[in-house]
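Entry 12.
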Amino acid sequence: MIRRSNLAKIVLITAVAVIILLNLYTFIEAYPQTYTINSGINSTGTPLAKDFSAYYMGAWRLWNNPAHIYNFGALNDGEPTILPHPEEYKYLPSFLLIVSPFLSLNYQQALLAFDVIQFMLLPLMAYLLYKLLNNKPVAVTIVVMIIALLLPFPTVNQGLSPSYYWQWGEGQAKVFLTFLLLLSFYWGKQGKPYLSGIALAFGFFDPRFGLLALPLYIMYNRKNLKEATASLIGALALSNGMLLYPGMAANFLSMVFASAVTTPLYYYALIPFFTLIALIIVNFKELVAAFQCKRDF
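Predicted 3D structure (tokens):
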């Protein structure tokens, strides 16, 4: 294991501070976008509500009209008005348990609060990456942090990162998702497989990235894989038990095959995607060793 000197730690802290400040600039640039009704990141030109509208309305329906969580558009059932209409909810219902506290605010306040809380997770994500990569060179750690915390690609009107610009502008959940995945890996590395499984189960609300995270999850939990597997399966089942509500599972499957499978990797989806790919690359030897060990066993 590489023992980091005080100088290396100072370099890392300075790098994280600069990265987060640059992300703050992107946040400020994206803030006006949260109030606009336009086509957003979609290239069709159709006016759309922000992506956060899907979470907000989905959470409201969970507690008031659960069979219709996956219905597209507005329903005449007393639900909040979001113009031109709320976006379609495309995640597992477990995520709505996390969004539900935001229903205490109106839609626009909730969107801003959701963004701010996710921005506040960036230093915690930096700490998790620091602990996950403490056996890697400082330069490697900084590169992975830049990918996870900024993903820079300067554009004219989208701050320093189109991925984070649309993450903040749409009130997307990809920072929270990335945080849950990193937290799961961290707890696995710390020998806490049950907590690791719970974190990944909630991070599985977008199954694309939950599946991509599985090799790393196995690697970080290789010493306690049975417990981690049981925890993940149990937490997934319990947190999504509302799918048993009449009509919800059918609508979920209809949504999956009608629209979810055709949803592309938009800019904000690149945040968890490239973070996971970066961790897979820098841990490639450890991944091979972990899977070789299990196969030999």
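Annotation: The chain is about 60% helix and 0% strand. The longest helix spans residues 107-132.
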